[in-house]
Specification:
This protein is α/β, with parallel strands linked by helices. It has 2 domains: about 1-125, 3-Layer(aba) Sandwich (Rossmann fold), CATH 3.40.50.2300; about 130-200, no CATH class. Helix content is about 45%, strand content about 15%. It contains 7 helices and 5 strands, in the order βαβαβαβαβααα. The chain has helices at about 10-20, 35-45, 65-70, 90-95, 110-150, 160-165, 195-200, and strands at about 1-5, 30-35, 50-55, 80-85, 100-105. Helix 2 packs parallel to helix 3. The protein is elongated, with a radius of gyration of 25 Å. The two termini are about 40 Å apart.
Length: about 200
């Protein structure tokens, strides 16, 4: 389930945004709300929501400034900008700071639902890709360590890139090798997991 923060200075709009679409069915849960720019930025820092519904004009800080500062501080979540103003310069600034959608008020239910659905799909794709990359890195790390331990010939035609090995955490000065051999082939109870052996 992804999280969404609702930020608008008008309480009736915040309440409406909670119920205008079925957030649960789109894979989101509302994690908070904010009524001004400073509070919005603070909540982004604290809860790091996957999506922020953000009014372009709020007290204490404009929405475009919130996006800029959040990006500068390492926030990679998604933004849907909400605006009662059709001035294209706001949209240009929001897009420059990587906002996903720019919707004008009054908010159209179908438009918001389509935007949230697209973001949920993108987030799922990103999550799946990151899991695949992590799995491939684990496999690569295991393969490289096996080559080091066994002196097995490598299929590489050149030495590994230092940046590549840094990501795999292979920069240790010394490694320890644990050799595990199962002595009894008859008793299934003797088979201990590798993790249990390491606790000894």
């Amino acid at each position: 389930m992804y999280t969404v923060l609702i930020a608008d200075d008008e309480q009736n709009i915040r309440e409406g945004l909670k119920y205008i679409i079925d957030w649960d069915s789109l894979g989101f849960q509302i994690c908070g709300e904010a009524a001004n720019g400073e509070d919005t930025l603070q909540q982004i820092r604290q809860s790091c929501p996957d999506l922020v519904l953000l009014d372009i004009r709020m007290p204490k800080m404009y929405g475009t400034d919130i996006i800029r500062l959040a990006r500068e501080q390492g926030y990679h979540g998604r933004f849907i900008i909400l605006s009662g103003y059709s001035d294209f310069t706001y949209a240009q600034t929001a897009i420059r700071y990587d906002a996903d959608f720019y919707l004008t008020k009054p908010i159209d239910e179908d438009e918001l639902s389509a935007a949230a659905e697209k973001i949920a799909a993108d987030l799922t794709d990103e999550h799946n890709r990151s899991q695949q990359i992590a799995m491939l890195k684990d496999k690569a790390r295991a393969s490289i360590l096996y080559e080091i331990i066994t002196a097995a010939p490598s299929s590489r035609t050149s030495p590994p890139d230092p940046e590549e090995t840094a990501e795999l955490n292979l920069a240790a000065d010394i490694y320890q090798v644990v050799i595990y051999e199962k002595y009894s082939l008859r008793s299934p109870d003797i088979c201990s997991s590798f993790a249990e052996l390491l606790k000894i």
